[in-house]
Write a structure and sequence with these properties.
The complex is a heterodimer of chains A (116) and B (112). Chain A has strands at residues 5-7, 10-13, 19-24, 31-37, 43-50, 65-69, 75-79, 88-95, 106-107, 111-115. Chain A is an all-beta fold and 116 residues long. In chain A, strands 2, 4, 5, 8, 9 and 10 form a six-stranded mixed sheet that branches. Chain A has a four-stranded antiparallel sheet with strand order 1-3-7-6, with no helix packed on it. Chain A starts with a strand and ends with a strand. In chain B, 0% of the residues lie in helices and 58% in strands. Chain B is built from no helices and eleven strands. In chain B, the strands form two sheets. In chain B, strands 2, 4, 5, 9, 10 and 11 form a six-stranded mixed sheet that branches. A five-stranded antiparallel sheet of chain B has the order 1-3-8-7-6, with no helix packed on it. Classes of the chains: A mainly beta (116), B mainly beta (112).
């Protein structure tokens, strides 16, 4: 079946502009995660959605970052007033419902964001 | 919070030799330890995982070991092949769901 998809694959923007990154999780996966991967670094957790529960926003680096998930499926990560240090690959992952016996996280290909 | 350290940062091996990557974690509540392989330009792909109720798990040429007392776990790749060249990440999680805490990654290069 289809995996996690993300769009755009690449985004170049100017400092100070807002950007929106989209994630389509695997059908039936109620958990959705956003991570950030800076060049040559590991993955840094940003935010986690699980069904209708309040999201875990503990990883968002500043109030310029926000995310929403409409209808329990597609998610959008928004970065306002982008800064050069926001340049990174933004990865989305999804997993089966909380409590499912197999709940590994499946990752999308990522969106490479470059802030000039 | 959880902190995961991963070593080495780079690993070069001859084709056919074994590769070992080691990770340590800090949160004794962590009970799920996945390993991901990331090829250039792609998202991470789960290759094997282990839960805290077992000490070792194998899948063909890949194995993972877990020492809960010492809080470390390792990935072992035997009979390495050029297609094993990639960046490998370990991760840890406390509980049955939620965020993963990742190590910094290991660049593995398998030379023919």
């Amino acid at each position: 079946g289809a995996g996690v998809s993300q769009s755009p694959s690449n985004k170049v923007t100017e400092k100070g502009k807002d950007v929106e990154l989209r994630c389509d999780p695997i059908s039936g996966h109620t958990a959705l995660y956003w991570y950030r991967q800076s060049l040559g670094q590991g993955l840094e957790f940003l935010i986690y959605f699980q069904g209708n529960s309040a999201p875990d926003k503990s990883g968002l680096p500043s109030d310029r970052f926000s995310a929403e998930r409409t209808g329990g499926s597609v998610s959008t990560l928004t970065i306002q007033r982008t800064q050069q240090e926001d340049s990174a690959v933004y990865l989305c992952a999804s997993s089966r419902p909380q409590g499912a016996p197999e709940n590994e996280q499946f990752f999308g290909p990522g969106t490479r964001l470059t802030v000039l | 919070g959880e902190n995961v350290e991963q070593h080495p940062s780079t690993l070069s091996v001859q084709e056919g030799d074994s590769a070992v990557i080691k990770c340590t974690y800090s949160d004794s509540a962590s009970n799920y330890f996945p390993w991901y392989k990331q090829e250039l330009g792609k998202g991470p792909q789960l290759i094997i995982d282990i839960r805290s109720n077992v000490g070792e798990k194998k899948d063909q040429r890949i194995a993972v070991t877990l020492n809960k007392t010492a809080k470390h776990f390792s990935l072992h790749i035997t009979e390495t092949q050029p297609e094993d060249s990639a960046v490998y990440f370990c991760a840890a999680r406390a509980g049955s769901w939620g965020k993963l805490q990742f190590g910094a990654g290991t660049q593995v290069v398998v030379t023919p």
